[in-house]
Write the structure tokens for this entry.
Amino acid sequence: MAEKNTADASQNRTRAEIFHFVFLTLALFIFWVVLSGKMEVKYLVIGFVTAVAVTVLTRPLLILPPERTGSWLSLWDLPWFRIIAYVPWLIYQIMVANVQMAWIILHPKLPVDPQIVTFHKRIPHPVGRFALANSITLTPGTITVSVDEHDYTIHCVQSVFVGGVAPEEGEGTMPAQVGAVFGIPRGVGLDRQETTDKGL
């Protein structure tokens, strides 16, 4: 059994490293060709060699070991189609939040009701946790104060924004969407922990 696990881990690592090498080398080489605009053989060789060198040098930064992810993983091994589909939804949420923030700012009474919300959302992929924290920060009215593994502490300008990240019941739309992008069903790995009123 131990031998099988070792073989699986070795195969997984080999797959991650091959995927990383091929994807990043091609991406960097294409980027070189586009920027240089030169198709002479010597320039193509220089570009290819440079792409390979950068790929080899950045390997320790872009291959994640099992102790962080459960298996060897390349940061390029991502659900790209779901990520691309997620971006328009995020842009729409940012636009809606901008309107809500404009209303608060222009309101004569400036109806702010600051709150600190802490919730737990388990997303195994580190890029997923990064995406959730930054999506919340990109959306006006909410800022990710800290991330500790799967625990997120969020500052909300008004209670209306709390519902988007950690409502009293159910799951916030932002954690649910990011979780879905990385293959986590709605409501799985979620636990709202506490809300602190930071009213002025």
